[in-house]
Amino acid sequence: MNKKSATIYDISHKLNVSVATVSRALNDHPRISEATKELVRKTAKEMNYKQNNLAKALKSGETKNVGIIVPYINTNFFSSVIRGIEEELSLLGYHVIICQSHEDVNIEKRHLNTLLNAQVDGIFMSVSKTTIDTEHIENILETTNTPIIFFDRKKDIAGISTVTIDDYRGGYMATEHLIKEGYKNICHFAGDLNLEIYQNRLNGYKQALLDNNFQIKEDNIIFTGSSIDTGIDAIKKLWDRKSIPDAIFSSSDFAALGACQELKKRKIKIPEEVAVIGFSNEPFTQFMELPMSSVDQTPVTMGKMAGRVFIESVKENGSGVSTEKKVVLAPQLYIRKSSKRK
Amino acid sequence: MNKKSATIYDISHKLNVSVATVSRALNDHPRISEATKELVRKTAKEMNYKQNNLAKALKSGETKNVGIIVPYINTNFFSSVIRGIEEELSLLGYHVIICQSHEDVNIEKRHLNTLLNAQVDGIFMSVSKTTIDTEHIENILETTNTPIIFFDRKKDIAGISTVTIDDYRGGYMATEHLIKEGYKNICHFAGDLNLEIYQNRLNGYKQALLDNNFQIKEDNIIFTGSSIDTGIDAIKKLWDRKSIPDAIFSSSDFAALGACQELKKRKIKIPEEVAVIGFSNEPFTQFMELPMSSVDQTPVTMGKMAGRVFIESVKENGSGVSTEKKVVLAPQLYIRKSSKRK
DNA sequence: TTGTAGGCGTTATCAA
DNA sequence: TTGATAACGCCTACAA
């Protein structure tokens, strides 16, 4: 009952030629007569022959598979990056293997290991929030030839190429925009500073303030997560004290959304009394009651770039040298009603 | 400069034992002394040995990889289903390979083939809109043992398990809800009827009308796509003629969104003058200016169920018998402001 | 132009 | 308890 697919042996038997001939014919080897090629191809089709990439990979050392590790796949940002990578690489015959770390460094480690065991040709990853130590990653670099490419959430490790957006500039642009709109007391919802992206957004915010002769008030920096609830809590916290901000630059769209909800509840008008601007340009931002300004991360482009960086590193690996690439994409500010007072 | 990872041969050399012993020790074979096991494991770690799953797969015939083909990965629905599948299967040591068909049956075919070449243990798929003929799929069934599982967008093919939601019931529920709210002239935005899901949603809509003594007016069935623009166009078309509906049940959230936008533009009040209800419960629906009612498809659950169906079929395949499963999940109606008149 | 044979890294069978 | 060896399916020197 088991249908085993035909191998080149089966074909060679049927045709009374050697396996080598079959293999070469199937691979369009120049020194095989057109007649045999034709014959082999025809019978291969008849016998429903399918090449076993496993065997080929075992021989060649190339699986034509790459792994991707992200915290969760079902967010607009990560699924869009994956889309970009897949579109860039599937044309070149690569398959894309997806793993979710659930923001847990131990799961991340496990996936890294199983991907390596699966002999992937490369690994794309955005580190989890709990990835503080990076020994497990550096270790791979030292002991294997498998290229690793960080996208978005990177760590500074020599020899690893990265594709990111300029989060600093994103933070700067958002803050500067608020200043130009006349807001005076701008607060920032900062994310987990263990991740560079949030560190950079915060720094951009700070520098924009300084460059415009504003003071940086530590009280105006609230740490939130990337959920609606943390945004709600942040508003509660802010309004419980004296100095109330007139603008919020949030490092997360979801926290910004929570802020909008809580502000509405308190009958505080956006953007008249308080401006709100988020980060990521999640699809929902443009459909909100009050369309929300946000910083776009061009995720599909990021994925495509990451794919290209990988391809280059594969080529280089063949030639011996290997230099890391650091691609930095420009963020794009989408200004909508939530931050336009003028 | 090339770092080649250690094999069991390297270990066997170093320890002066046979490869067989090493292999058995690593696999915790009962008839190997604890001492050698310990020694082997220790040196394996020292030499940074990593099992080559390729070789193992070649031998065993199991790659522990499954393929998933979806139109696009970066939509909430598909990425959530994938999340479910990944979470269910990664625990069992499987990896998940993602392919996008871009709604093109030819790309779908190509992916199907390369996945088969990659020796995946199973294939999950949601067919593309251009998949009319299913010969290429039936062919796989006949010539391989690779189980195929359809989720959401299925085709009726004997021997293929499916996991779907009850779209008929979803359509019925949505329409009935509108009727109970007192709407009298309910129109339907139908999707591509080549896909069963849209056929079923339409049928549910019709039956709900009939069961409540409403007439089915063919004019009230507008064919839209799954984009905002098609929803806008639909409203234009409807309002250009005499009998204007007082409720819209859209088979797509995006078309429903387009409708809301166009209605607002025309100063037509939702839900007082016209009710709107969508399908898919996309994240943006709850954050809209006027939160929109929608039918939830429980995508993560769908993915998990699909994973389980696959596992069962793997077990069965070992035992010889193989019966197809048809899992139908219950849709969930989320009633929000856009359809509550009372 | 075609054939022979070895090897990729494992596991499993048969001996010892 | 361990060892030798064949086999998984393919590719590729080397030979013919």
UniProtKB/TrEMBL annotation, chains A, B:
Keywords: DNA-binding, Transcription, Transcription regulation
MF annotations from Gene Ontology: DNA-binding transcription factor activity; transcription cis-regulatory region binding
Residue runs in coiled coils: none
Domain HTH lacI-type: start-end pairs: 6-60
PROSITE patterns named in the record: HTH_LACI_2
Membrane-spanning ranges: none
Record's protein name: LacI family transcriptional regulator
Annotated source species: Chryseobacterium elymi
